[in-house]
Amino acid sequence: MSGTYLGMPAFPAAAASSTQDTRLRANLRYATHTIRDKRARAVAELDDWARLRAAGAAVKDRTLRHLDHYLEQLEEAVTAAGGQVHWAADAAEANAIVARLVRETGEREVVKVKSMATQETGLNRALAEAGISAYETDLAELIVQLGDDLPSHILVPAIHRNRGEIRDIFRERMGRWGRPAPEGLSDAPNELAEAARLHLREKFLNAKVGISGANFMVAETGTLVVVESEGNGRMCLTLPETLISVVGIEKVVPTWQDLEIFLQLLPRSSTAERMNPYTSMWTGTADGDGPRTFHLVLLDNGRTDTLADTVGRQALRCIRCSACLNVCPVYERAGGHAYGSAYPGPIGAILTPQLRGTASELDASLPYASSLCGACYEVCPVAIDIPEVLVHLRERVVQGGKVTRRGVKTVLKPAKGHAAERAAMRAAGFAFGHPGVLRAGQRLAGRTRRLHPRRLPGPGRAWSDTRDLPPVPAESFRDWWRRTRGEERGK
Amino acid sequence: MRVALFVTCINDTLHPDTGRAVITLLERLGVEVGFPEEQSCCGQPQFNTGYRHLTEPLVRRFDRAFRDYDYVVTPSGSCAAMVRDNYPRIAERATAEGRDGRELAEAAARAVPKTYELTEFLVDVLKVTDVGAYYPHTVTYHPTCHGLRMLRLGDRPRRLLEQVKGLELRELPGAEECCGFGGTFAVKNPAVSAAMGADKVRAVRETGAEAVCTVDNSCLLHIGGMLRREGAAARPVHIAEILAATEPDARKPAGTEGSPR
User: Which of B5, B11, B51 to mutate to test the interface with A (most CBs of A within 10 A)?
Assistant: First the structure.
């Protein structure tokens, strides 16, 4: 595993290989089940959770409906507080802005707070191409970066690794990036944490530029909010002279008071904590405190296109808590890398094909990466009906339809590879529309039941490779009814 | 009270015993059940795979078939959920796409309030939990995703099973987890589907129960298919067939009625 999500195989193929990785599955099963059980207990403590959830969804929806207004208000407030706002239409533009801003400081190294937005844009690679080294300081992101790996979870990017693997990565790789791991490092959590602490301290104290994302942006005050567990983020936000925050435009909330809802919803949903350990808030610049220069890069990258879709736009409510990943039976077995995006799991399956479009085979396969079991919708703290959006996007894949891409309304053609399925669905539709045809088909299946193969050809093979088919009964219910009760019809 | 059986296309074709069991059970409870032959499929496979436009005629057909009945009872949690959750949505989307969805909305409005999954109908409408069944076996209950999260069946199926004479209910570990069927998911993502199914089957085997029961034969098609492939002793049984079984049935020699599953 290295470097980039681009060009990854479609989900079913990637998942087929990861389901064979017994260590990965054991790591994931242990981690997701631990978090999901804790989350359930933390949520059950609040008797107004359902109302909080509805309030969170309502605030997000209202803000998204008037997004232009709140973004302009935010820009004004950030500027008034001494910050500079930059608008980035896509990933390339965001990366170019950040690279330019870093270069203007004369620095060649930056420290980073864990940020989904810069994972989405592939910022580290873009900076490397510009001759700038970006050091991840979140413990899990550090593990991923040292291991030349990709994150596989929104909240716990290194969830696919166990302690032994982490020890090996630290021992082998830390020295290449800075302070090496202590001699004889074991896989005890406190030793691993101390090794990371010593390695990172060196980075924090030397860094002149910090790069962050944000969980929320408050329009009325121009305040940005980062919610993290380790305090490493706070070091990045306060020690460097220049701070560059790259944030998706959907992260804005209208008022300071709105945070009250989300600072209850987020920690309980994500880490199962009643209160978040490190909640940092920064507003522009202040004399004698924190960075001297502050830049906010507002990232669109498919978000306004997503907003144009009346069913799919609810994905933009997401507060990146990852509760949906931790309960998803598909994520648990496939692992995060199979989703080929910074956003894995159920939310990734609806967000990625909207942000990137469904043109690639991988992106077109994501809406099908779910059994529609509904567990994700049930845990979502902002009530995103993920199954509804999955089905909506499946419709887009098989039938095409009207979408907005880069602000322009276009009509998508159906994705390739669904012709046989479409024909089968139409044929079934014909039979279901003509019960006489259905009955004839059932009779034929019943009479030929002894001839049915145990293994199916074509797409059905996927079924019969691991499961037996039930024998077709000699008589359908319909025929039994007509034979035994037929004369009672119409009663 | 005019009650119709919506047998569903899967039960009609592959599990007629389940349909017969519903008839037996409801008639034993004094309910006269009709079977309008105009019925076909609820549209769930088409809807969930992305072919929503193909479901519109099925919404109209459902309404036509069951219009004269007060209640529609179906031995399928997922088909009941399809009607209740998605029929109104199909009408809404048709309207949103600039077509006249009024007729569909009216059909949905008639279908939704009268459509009941079997255990809901027994507990909520007939207000019975003891249906006079006798089933002298150990059974574990898998609550299916649609029954659990869309229909919110809660403990209704359990309350019915607990009243069955001779039945010993065994707890299923990880009961609330999806079995991995998911309709076309089983074919489109076979590896993950099989991995999920394998975990479910392992849990079923851990209980040591003779039978695993659900409110949905489609999940049983998948769980049962894996059990059979593994040569496991546990057999899949639809809850309707357990609730329909009585003491005289149990005394009959095995295999005199119905077909093996």
Answer: B51
ipTM: 0.94
Which A positions 249-288 lie with beta carbon below 8 A of chain B? none
Q: What is the pTM for the complete model shown? A: 0.94
- Relative to beta strand A408-412, strand A401-405 is antiparallel
Distance CA A480, CA A488 (A): 13
Beta carbons of A38 and A272 less than 8 angstroms apart: yes
| CB spacing of B186 vs A462 below 8 angstroms | yes
Q: What is the DSSP letter of B181?
A: -
Identify the helix (H) or strand (E) that includes residue A143. Answer: helix A139-146
* pLDDT, average across residues A371-391: 98
From chain B, pick out residues whose CB is under 8 angstroms from the CB of A391.
47-48, 50, 52
Three-state SS sequence of A212-267: ECCCEEECCCCEEEEEECCCHHHHHHHCCCEEEEEEEHHHEECCHHHHHHHHHHHH
Q: Could you give the percent of chain A with pLDDT greater than 90?
A: 82
User: What is the residue type of A55?
Assistant: A
Q: Which residues contact A48 (CB under 8 A, 6 or more apart)?
A: none
Residue B106 CA: distances (Å) to CA of A240, A374, B1, B63, B102: 63, 27, 22, 9, 6
CA end-to-end distance (rounded Å), chain B = 33
Encoded tokens for A415: 């994705």
Q: What is the pLDDT of residues A240-286, one digit of tens each?
A: 999 999 999 999 999 999 999 999 999 999 999 999 999 999 999 99
Interface contact B134, partner A, CB < 8 A:
no
Q: How far apart are CA A267 and CA A280, in angstroms?
A: 14
